[in-house]
């Protein structure tokens, strides 16, 4: 009987851990590492701030968990794509897999937050390790040349930037934006537009 109770307790703890990580991914993605707090994560997850600290320790450790989970999702999606239809070029399979992942904005936003923290003695190291893990996967598992892997990563980073800054919000009003996005997403433009609808228009600040 006690083993059943312990198993249920572990399952509940695992579920709460996932709940907190989901909330942390959203909070860090929206507020950035510097702007986010464990209290904000706790409120988003519906738990207490001390509970978040007991589970993950520091804000830094919580962000690292979020970063590692995002990287694991990318690596898993890429490996699944590599094992996919050999009639489709591997770069296209990988690109499709990545653009599917971008439907979750927290993944790309937290990657960008980590990359700009390159000078941080802890987060910067983990960001570099994760980035190079992706590069090694492209070289060793996808069979890309160094030039092909570099081009693929460059395209992915450009996609991150235009999605992170919500460039699609100006799609309807700026011809240059439409031109650029059409070049960045030549095959997935309409699909990605649907996944990234513009924010409601806000009133511009009054100049006095």
UniProtKB/TrEMBL annotation:
Protein name: Transcriptional regulator, TetR family
GO molecular function: DNA-binding transcription factor activity; transcription cis-regulatory region binding
Source species: Herbiconiux ginsengi
PANTHER family listed in its UniProt record: HTH-TYPE TRANSCRIPTIONAL DUAL REGULATOR CECR (PTHR30055:SF146), HTH-TYPE TRANSCRIPTIONAL REGULATOR RUTR (PTHR30055)
Domain HTH tetR-type: 14-74
Record keywords: DNA-binding
Gene3D superfamilies named in the record: Tetracycline Repressor, domain 2
DNA-binding region: 37-56
Signal peptide interval: none
InterPro entries xref list: Homeodomain-like_sf (IPR009057), HTH-type_TetR-like_transc_reg (IPR050109), HTH_TetR (IPR001647)
């Amino acid at each position: 009987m006690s083993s059943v109770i312990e198993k249920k307790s572990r399952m509940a703890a695992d579920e709460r851990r996932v709940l907190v990580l989901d909330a942390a991914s959203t909070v860090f993605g929206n507020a950035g590492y510097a702007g986010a707090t464990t209290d904000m994560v706790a409120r988003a997850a519906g738990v207490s701030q001390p509970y978040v600290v007991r589970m993950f320790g520091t804000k830094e450790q919580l962000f690292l968990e979020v970063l590692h989970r995002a990287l694991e999702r990318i690596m898993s999606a890429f490996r699944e794509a590599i094992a996919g239809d050999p009639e489709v070029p591997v770069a296209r399979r990988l690109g499709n897999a990545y653009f599917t992942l971008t439907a979750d904005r927290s993944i790309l936003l937290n990657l960008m937050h980590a990359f700009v923290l390159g000078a941080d003695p802890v987060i910067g190291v983990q960001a570099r390790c994760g980035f190079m893990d992706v590069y090694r996967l492209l070289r060793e598992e996808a069979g890309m040349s160094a030039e092909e892997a570099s081009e693929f990563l460059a395209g992915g980073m450009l996609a991150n930037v235009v999605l992170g800054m919500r460039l699609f919000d100006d799609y309807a009003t700026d011809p240059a934006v439409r031109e650029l996005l059409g070049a960045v997403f030549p095959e997935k433009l309409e699909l990605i537009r649907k996944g990234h609808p513009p924010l409601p228009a806000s009133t511009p600040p009054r100049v006095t």
